[in-house]
Design a protein that fits this description.
By secondary structure, the protein is mainly alpha-helical. The protein has a single domain, classed as Orthogonal Bundle (di-copper center containing domain from catechol oxidase), CATH 1.10.1280.10. Helix content is 31%, strand content 6%. It contains seven helices and six strands. The strands form three sheets. It has a two-stranded parallel sheet. Helix 6 packs antiparallel against helix 7. The chain starts with a strand and ends with a strand.
Length: 300
């Protein structure tokens, strides 16, 4: 298979440069439809979905992209669409993944944060603005939820979590079935989706695995609405998707749930906002993205 998503540690120097080039190309490429650059369009898709709160959720957290069964399917489609945009800039390029468990001993010095890749932590003396690497303050402008310029990229390592996800927690998520369960929200248990999303931490902090990665990085990644402002978002979520793919292979009899009795936008055949044919011309449902190999990619 041509499209193989690789571990960041296995990337060649040229592959790192190609990835940075492709991401920056999307930041410079203007959409003829919206007049905004393509990269920011993806940030806004995520922001609009996150702000679309589901009134049927008693806790008020569920939205089309998070805290519900479609969390993994929504982001799988989102990553795939983003990857196809990257490939227009650099053919055959794929999104690499950040395996957090390889950095639990020293997350501050992960190769992810190298100056020749995604750059490092923010400057605590200057509003935690990133000043190293290709996405430093003088090279990368982030946006607010309305699309207006916000300023430089921000990161604040380890402020809200002392470490990145570990192998023990990953193993628990890979062993948990079913895919999801009622009430299809932050309280679902047992639930592979809810476990991997990070809301079933033993200490009740709602910060494990996916959520923990966002919280450890901090800055833009801590703001769920506009977290894709940070290019690391895609490598982080690529690993989340990889773990779901492993779980799917490990549990072939476990199917996506719910099939029809869940909240709107989260059932197997429901259209996922904004890919509902109305907000955008695209249409995507959870059933359309369950088989990642048929989507044309796999993981190394």
């Amino acid at each position: 298979m041509k499209n193989v998503r690789k571990n960041i540690r296995d990337l060649t120097q040229q592959e790192k440069q190609n990835y940075i080039k492709a991401v920056k190309t999307l930041k410079d490429k203007i959409s003829s439809i919206t007049g905004r650059n393509i990269y920011d369009e993806y940030v806004l898709w995520h922001s609009k979905a996150t702000q679309r709160t589901d009134p049927t959720d008693p806790r008020g957290f569920r939205n089309p992209a998070h805290v519900g069964p479609a969390f993994l399917a929504w982001h799988r489609y989102y990553l795939l669409a983003f990857e196809k945009q990257l490939q227009k800039a650099v053919p055959d390029l794929t999104i690499p993944y950040w395996d957090w468990t390889q950095d639990t001993n020293d997350p501050f010095n992960s190769p992810l944060w190298a100056a020749d890749f995604l750059g490092g932590n923010g400057d605590p003396q200057d509003n935690y603005l990133v000043k190293t690497g290709p996405f430093a303050v003088d090279q990368w402008i982030t946006i607010n939820i309305d699309g207006s310029p916000k300023g430089g990229l921000q990161r604040q390592f380890a402020l809200f979590n002392s470490n990145v996800p570990n192998q023990t927690d990953v193993n628990i998520a890979l062993g948990e079935t079913p895919y999801d369960s009622s009430p299809w929200n932050i309280e679902s248990s047992p639930s592979h989706r809810n476990r991997l999303e990070g809301f079933l931490a033993p200490d009740g902090s709602f910060s494990q695995l996916h959520n923990q990665g966002h919280a450890w990085i901090g800055g833009d990644m801590l703001n769920v609405n506009i977290s894709p402002n940070d290019p690391v978002f895609y490598l982080h979520h690529c690993n989340v998707d990889r773990l779901w793919a492993i779980w799917q292979d490990k549990n072939p009899t476990q199917q996506y749930l719910p099939t029809g009795e869940g909240p709107s936008g989260h059932n197997l055949y429901d259209l996922m906002y904004p890919w509902d044919g109305i907000a955008t011309k695209s249409k995507a449902r959870p059933i359309d993205v369950l088989n990642f190999r048929k989507l044309g990619y796999t993981y190394a």
